[in-house]
Amino acid sequence: MTPKAPLNLEVPHQRMAEVALKALSRIISEWKLSQAEAAAIADMPASSWKRVEAGDYGRKLNKDQMLRVSAIVGIYKSLKLYFNEPIASEWISLENDGPLFRGQRPVYSLITSGLPQFLKVRTYLEALLEGHDPSFPTIAGKPENCFDSKRGSS
Q1: Count of beta carbons in the 10 Å neighbourhood of residue 24
Q2: 116, burial (CB in 10 Å: exposed 0-12, middle 13-18, buried 19+)
Q3: Most CB atoms closer than 10 Å: which of 1, 46, 98, 143?
Q4: How far is CA 152 from CA 27, 102, 145, in A?
């Protein structure tokens, strides 16, 4: 009986990073974001983002980066389902008076507020898709604004 080779968990994680970065690169390109914005979205230096665009990154993504990519894919999908073109592709760069953006471009809010904002924006867009008013969701039958920073405090 031959001994089994040790399980190499690096290969699947590396492949997952490659696929995630390829998807992110395509979304960023469609959204026509700058290299600086793309690098900030991916939470990496501009020089690393240039390697991503060239298909030569070759590193694993950390959990935060993978969550960012996952959220961006969800945001992208929601925008495609909710809006027609060209708004679906331009929305991320348009000034927005919605409760999460206060007149800012959504991409700017993602960059300046980090991962929690990525998840809030994704949740916001998914609520729109489900026909809910995302500024006034209900939780356990009780109206509550889930985008309020004072959530859960009494």
Answers
A1: 23
A2: exposed
A3: 98
A4: 35, 22, 10
How far out from the chain centre does Cα 8 lie? Answer: 29
Task: Give the pLDDT confidence score for residue 154 in this predicted structure.
Answer: 39
DSSP string, 45-103: -HHHHHHHHTT---SPPPHHHHHHHHHHHHHHHHHHHHS-TTHHHHGGGS---STTTTT
143 - beta bridge partners? Answer: 138
Decide: 62 and 47 in contact? Cβ < 8 Å. Answer: no
Rounded CA gap, 94 and 85, in Å? 14
CA distance 28 to 23: 9
Residue 147's nearest CA partner among 111, 109, 94 is 109
| Token pair in block for residue 97 | 């008076």
Rounded CA gap, 152 and 124, in Å?
18
Low-confidence ranges of the chain (pLDDT < 50): 5, 7-9, 137-154
Which conformational region is residue 82 in: left (phi greater than 0), alpha (psi within -120 to 50 degrees), or beta?
alpha
Instruction: Give the pairing of strands 142-143 and 138-139.
Output: antiparallel
